Amino acid sequence: MRIYIFLSAFLVILHNCLKIHAANCTCRTATEDVNWFLLFKPVNQLMGKIISPSNAAWTNDGANMNSNTNHALVKTLAEWMEPILADMTAVGYSNMPPRSTITSKTTTSKGILMFGNETTDGFWLLHTFERAFPNSASWSWPTKFTSEGHMVLCLSVGEDNVPLIVPALQYQEVVIYFGQVSSEKATEFADLTSLIDGSLSTITPPLWNKQSITTLNSALSADVYSKTASSRLEMYGGFLNRVMVVNMRIWAVTDNTLTTTCGGRIGFVKVVQSPVTIAGTQNDRSKDKSQWAVIEDQPVFCFTTNAYSTKQRTVAGSATCINQQAVSNLFTTSAANFIACPYG
User: Fold this and answer.
1) Angstrom distance (rounded) from CA 152 to CA 129
2) Is the pTM of this model over 0.70?
3) Which of 33, 36, 101, 290 has the smallest number of CB atoms closer than 10 Å to its CB?
4) Closest to 123 measured CA to CA, from 83, 84, 155
């Protein structure tokens, strides 16, 4: 009888521990759980700059990013870096996966989607880091990251957003390097399972997609624009401007095949001049992996994955556009100087 009581108590404690462990899938800054954050790592610096619901202006992260404690990425990815429990749902994808030398030439997206099954909360983390982040592995910092600029957008989302995120990832043609769906969520996340194993229905025209999601408590709304490699759409002037019917200023890698556009009142793409000042730091285009756009006369900021180049017409990608005034204001200031229309 004593053995039975002890075993029962142990199982209850173990179950409760797993519940607590599995519940920790959310966006985190160094100091708190948040509905979202935007992190920028400046060129040639280790200290990240962060914006969150608690900080409407750029603020230093909790620690340098080569540290294994007390900064937003380490905090948010704590569950990802531990052995992933069987009762968790997790997907990691990248065109340049960790633990691999493969580089996909048909997609540009990188991110992690993660949920525990004891809660409806999870996070979707979009990032620009190449060969990062391996699952079930402790935090590491390749020295080459220090000289580069990088960006991370983290959204705390409920499970009800998964049916919206899946088609976005399908159109982005993501390369999945880790995928697991909890057996308890097999029915709810059937499409996610199909995405992981490659059995989703074939995409038919139009070869682009828009999904609208919200973070927990509807704190932030985001429109996710995705395009396939066969769409033949250039991300900015060929896709976003036409769908959104806006003028935009962009910061993106360019090979000079495209520049600031000229023409009518709506549909301009204005290329931000290099170097760009963000959070008081100077960042050269050739070293900055982050790519983004701000919409003129609207409180909209877009985290983008594509370079501004004619070659990108045959590369899948995405723009995740958040409606957030403070973020828009900061990047509009950064985008004040842009390359003029070459035709006057």
Assistant:
1) 9
2) yes
3) 101
4) 155
